[in-house]
Amino acid sequence: METEGKPLSPNPLPPGAVLQGGGGFSEWARARRALRPPYPFASMAGIRFEHVSKLFPGAARAAVEDCSFAVADGSFVVLLGPSGCGKTTLLKMVNRLVEPTAGTIYLQDTDIRQIRATELRRQIGYVIQQIGLFPHMTVAQNVSVVPNLLKWPAAKTQARVDELLALVDLPPAEYRERYPGQMSGGQRQRVGVARALAGDPQVILMDEPFGAVDAITRSGLQEEMLHLQRKLKKTILFVTHDVEEALRLADKIVVMRAGRIVQYDTPFAILSQPANEFVYQLVGADDMVRQLGLVRVESAMLPLPAGASADLAHKIGREDTLRQALSLLLRSAADGLAVVENGVPVGWVTLESIRRAGEARE
Amino acid sequence: MVELLEAAVGYAGTHTEELLQALRQHLLLVAVALGIGMALCVPLGIWTSRSRGAALVIINAGNTLRVVPSLAILFLAIPYFGLSFTSAAIALTILALPPILINTDAAYRTINPAIREAALGMGMERRQVLWRVETPLALPVIVAGIRTAATEVIASATLAAFIGSGGLGLYVVRGFALYSIPILLVGAVPVALLTLAADLLLGGAQRWLQPPVHG
Hints:
The complex is a heterodimer of chains A (362) and B (215). Chain A has helices at residues 15-19, 24-35, 87-94, 117-122, 139-143, 145-149, 154-167, 172-175, 185-197, 215-232, 243-249, 267-272, 277-282, 288-292, 322-332, 351-359, and strands at 45-54, 64-72, 76-80, 102-107, 110-111, 124-127, 203-207, 235-240, 252-257, 260-265, 315-317, 336-341, 344-350.
């Protein structure tokens, strides 16, 4: 049903330019930009916000003000900011739980106002904190809500429930008939994710979904979320105020403050080139080494020049962290590391490129 | 004590027909009062749980009703409806209203907003949210209100006999008039048993409706 991870787009640079590391920052930046998600689908927008504003009646200032950005199809975008910055309002406008006072939101290039609110919501997955599960319904009934609204035949719904429970690591035979009150916070959150996936939506909205679970469970869930996203290629819009969570999960981060978008970029770019003092403070860019431990290598990956893979003896996984890459680079004194996915080189990183990125902020 | 009970059983044995008639009348009064109470107060409670204005007026009115003694309501109804079944039924209905209304209001009001939001966010219609999510969650608390109302109404229906509307209170009135404790017990014991049975039954329903937690 779902396709496996597609290979990266063809190398946009002449092979020699990057390999020598002497291409200059602008060329390096160009290579980086070419690699930003959505890797293969740059033109197709999963969700597009155009000058979206929301002024709640009686409020002194707009909750969301003139926000424009696009979430590429199949990418994982995190809305990050302090509480009250408008990130949740922005999220809820996508499934029309909140209607914008100005601007337009497009879902797969359709103005969402063209779609009846309930129809729209049935084709968008929605996950909120654990309390969103219905306590009077079993796990199976909770997961079946959207399939039932879509009037799927019972056999198809039941097969889907079992498939999804298995996917989120809850053996169906054991958990199908349980009630939310009989499960741990982490388990409930998995049910929440399964429920959001039930109608097979292309777009999933997640509002601080892991906010109510303990730190260890949370990082486990984050890890699984990444794997799910790799496997299913859903378009995910995810709200959090947790910087580490954002850096760990996002393909791109929307940093918000007082209803406005301050910066929209990859985790690596936000760390290395924060737009202003606010972003710098928010993401803790002063402790780069620590924060790089949260950013995946792939977000700082350069395209692999043809025939270069043989030269790169040192390898690092695509989903390892940049901190691990940095550490390996220092330890091995190698020029660059091959970034591999399932043993196949897909790109590379160098000390020079990371250093240059750090300088660019000054 | 045993002699008194024996005498009561003896009296009941010789008045079987009358006793069954009184029991039927008692249960009818209770059923009418609870039926009207539920039909009126459940929709009203849903409304007040959603509207601040309605809540302010109606819930306060309900609370005020609670303070008025049922005997007083009974006598207030007499000038309008005479010494009749209607007067008794009205008095008992008014008694049943506040607990059902207040519990229904609280039941819907205290549903976690996140649950409602999740239901809407998944694409349920308002009506579906009400019937599939909110009402099942509100039901245990509504039933608790009905339980309170039922025990009050069953006990108070005894008073109906004072205005000649029958019910098991008949024997309480008669026993009082004849200074006969056995006759009084023929009325009092079944009322006590009915109250207990209703309380246990509705308490069981309440537990059964509660979503399971743990184990």
